[in-house]
Amino acid sequence: MAYMSKLKYSDVTPRAAYMNRRQLMGGAAGLAAGLALGPVLGASKYSVDLEPNTLEDISSYNNFYEFGTGKTDPVKYASQLTIDPWSVEIGGMVDRPGTYGLEDILKKVTLEERIYRFRCVETWSMVVPWVGFELNQLLDLAGVQGSAKYVAFETLFRPEEMPGQKTVSLEWPYREGLRLDEALHPLTIMATGIYDEPMPKQNGAPLRLVVPWKYGYKSIKSIVRVTLTDKEPQTTWNMLQPNEYGFYSNVNPEVSHPRWSQAYEKPIGGGLFAKRQETLKFNGYQEEVASLYDGMDLVVNH
Ligand SMILES: Nc1nc2c(c(=O)[nH]1)N[C@H]1C(S)=C(S)[C@@H](COP(=O)(O)O)O[C@H]1N2
Ligand SMILES: [Mo]
After folding, report:
1. Is 250 known as a binding-site position?
2. 125 in ligand 1 pocket by Cβ < 6 Å?
3. Residue 197's beta-bridge partner residues?
4. Tens of pLDDT along 249-273?
5. Fewest C-beta atoms under 10 Å: which of 179, 266, 278, 298?
6. Which of 57, 59, 60, 63 to mutate to test the pocket of ligand 1 (most atoms within 8 A of CB)?
7. CA 146–ligand 1 middle distance (angstroms)
8. Domains of the chain
9. What separation in angstroms does the CA of 146 have from each of 156, 188, 269, 283?
10. Contact in structure between 56 and 267 (CB atoms under 8 Å)
11. Which residues are in the Oxidoreductase molybdopterin-binding domain (predicted)?
């Protein structure tokens, strides 16, 4: 795509701003730092050449219904979440099902920085410098069997620490899913950090999915279960309102949600002068992913 480059976020972020951010975050990272950091490959051909939002923007305006439905509930309440130790149960159609400790996973995968556009169905958007690894690396650890066609994901269910789970705002645990070819695509990552910090809890620590060509709700947070299956998995928002939230949820300016026209988006953090922008099909990743949907009706399969 036109605006891909090999820039690292530090190349497009003034050094002073970067230092301030480090000072601001100093001390808060603690033990968990080792989870997100370590050797990280700096530049990716998959990154976009756009200026990322600040860490403050990215970690203070969130959707994470486990902590409440308000945009500032996650930053207020997520600090109580325990994320260490953390493991992921990988099962279903795999050769090596089992409980995979996050620290062991991180020894076997390659962390990279990926600067991605991020687009919520509510029409706001950001640019996020994620740190993470390709989901296909995790699936390789478990050994996907030939019969598998989909991947299902589940978020932690722990109402003692996630007060939103004591309400019925959604059906718990939060669930998402991808077709296997979408899951194996190199743009699809498991993210463990943002900038050079471990994933903020309100953004889905310690491990969350990021699928940049789909609406944000597909990018499920705080994942504890990954299941390979031959049936399209149930997904939380689709279960709630199937006509509003399809399984595919590819960003598409031509398919509007009943409450939100998807023709335009509003970048977060632009301040007073932030202008709405035209929504890009597949959120700008058309060149990379359109072929996954050759021959499919994207209105029916929204
Ligand atoms: N477990 C879980 N994952 C979730 C959500 C949620 O409520 N619970 N919200 C989704 C929605 S609607 C969006 S837009 C993104 C927001 O991610 P961010 O807060 O890191 O920007 O997370 C997605 N993943
Ligand atoms: Mo969203």
Report:
1. no
2. no
3. 194
4. 999 999 999 999 999 999 999 776 7
5. 278
6. 63
7. 31
8. 9-249 (3.90.420.10)
9. 28, 20, 44, 30
10. no
11. 81-237
